[in-house]
Amino acid sequence: MSTSANANFSANLNRLRDAAAAFWNDRSTKERKQLLIIGSVILAALIYLLLIDPALSGRAQLRKSLPELRQKAAEIQQLSRDAVALAANPAPPPPVITKESMEASLAARGLKPQSVVVTDEVIRLQLTSASFAALIGWLDEVQKTMRLSVIDTTITALTASDMVNATLTLRQQKSGTRSE
Predict the structure, then answer these.
(1) Beta carbons within 8 Å of 153's beta carbon, 6+ residues apart
(2) 20 to 30 Å CA-CA from 124: which of 34, 75, 90, 139?
(3) pLDDT digits (tens, 9 = 90+) for 110-160
(4) What are phi and psi of 110, to 5 degrees?
(5) Please, is 43 exposed, middle or buried when counting C-beta atoms within 10 Å of its C-beta (0-12, 13-18, 19+)?
(6) Residue 68: burial class (beta carbons within 10 Å; 0-12, 13-18, 19+)
(7) Which strand (E) or helix (H) includes residue 6?
(8) Residue from 96, 107, 103, 111 nearest 145 by CA
(9) pTM of the model
(10) Which keywords does the record carry (predicted)?
């Protein structure tokens, strides 16, 4: 602040102090006591409303939510223990895929492959006039049970509803990886 601003502030403060002193001196002793009591009650009410009440209501709210928070903490700890246990146990190795197991899996879904070629971890299938819904259901099943994923596919819709010609190339995931 500049010196003139300080001087104005001091002058205003002095005028205010003089006005308050004049007001106070004009009051009788009884009025002064009443003003002190009223001022004390107002100050106590402000302290209660601004400091004590928020602390008490916040404490009550925390006390009310504490059991729920403890339950959530227990659930998180259990999930953490479960995750550690799952990480410690490696995934079981995927089943060995053979041409016969692939044909049996397809037949269980009502699909008859034109050809099935199994080499190492790669499977090539050709289906003609197959149900698209059955094919999608079979793919979902082998993804979960045999850990197969689609590498390449060509699907051609036929004129009949829900019928397709499909050529699929699938790969079995290695035993160290998890599907899902």
Answers:
(1) 166, 167, 168, 169
(2) 90
(3) 999 999 999 877 999 999 999 999 999 999 998 988 888 999 999 999 998
(4) 80, 25
(5) exposed
(6) exposed
(7) helix 3-26
(8) 96
(9) 0.49
(10) Cell inner membrane, Cell membrane, Coiled coil, Membrane, Protein transport, Transmembrane, Transmembrane helix, Transport
